[in-house]
């Protein structure tokens, strides 16, 4: 059974940082290359980055399965939608409905905030994730290209789910 718990302290953030290192290296290296993975882990997935995002209103949650930490999500309440900033599950635990359970949790959060949409961004070459999001009711609304510094860009699709 999947458990979802709010990350509230540096110990939790360190667990997330460690999970990010595993997940990103196994999944994203083939999509964006090792140099960009290294850069993004440091810039967006480190303990310091997580603390900064939380100070800006982001919420982080740990995903566990049978007391094993297997992933994490991050959300941010915006004016008109709930932004699903991060949803990651360790490879060996994919296909066990952990991501689906996390998405139901995110939908419940959006409803609790009286929001009617969830939005996310996904790399345009992350085809399996795009298919999974579409299966769960998300629709592509357009491309987003963002310069994230150090010569790297995020080349994503924005996807939205109406609740």
From TrEMBL:
InterPro entries: Acyl_CoA_acyltransferase, GNAT_dom. CDD domains: NAT_SF (cd04301). It holds the Pfam family Acetyltransf_10. Keywords: Transferase. One of its GO terms (molecular function) is acyltransferase activity, transferring groups other than amino-acyl groups. Residues 4-163 form the N-acetyltransferase domain. Signal peptide: none annotated. SUPFAM superfamilies: Acyl-CoA N-acyltransferases (Nat) (SSF55729). This is GNAT family N-acetyltransferase. It comes from Seonamhaeicola maritimus. The lineage of its organism: Bacteria, Pseudomonadati, Bacteroidota, Flavobacteriia, Flavobacteriales.
């Amino acid at each position: 059974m999947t458990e979802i718990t709010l990350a509230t302290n540096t110990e939790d953030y360190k667990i997330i940082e460690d999970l990010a290192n595993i997940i990103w290296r196994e999944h994203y290296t083939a999509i964006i290359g090792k140099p960009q993975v290294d850069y993004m882990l440091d810039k967006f997935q480190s303990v310091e980055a997580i603390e900064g995002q939380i100070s800006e209103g982001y919420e982080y949650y740990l995903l566990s399965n049978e007391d094993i930490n297997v992933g994490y999500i991050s959300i941010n309440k915006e004016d008109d939608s709930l932004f699903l900033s991060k949803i990651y599950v360790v490879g060996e635990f994919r296909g066990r409905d952990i991501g689906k359970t996390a998405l139901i949790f995110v939908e419940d959060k959006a409803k609790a905030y009286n929001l009617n949409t969830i939005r996310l961004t996904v790399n345009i070459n992350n085809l399996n994730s795009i298919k999974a999001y579409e299966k769960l009711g998300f629709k592509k609304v357009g491309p987003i290209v963002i310069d994230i510094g150090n010569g790297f860009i995020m080349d994503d699709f924005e996807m939205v789910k109406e609740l």
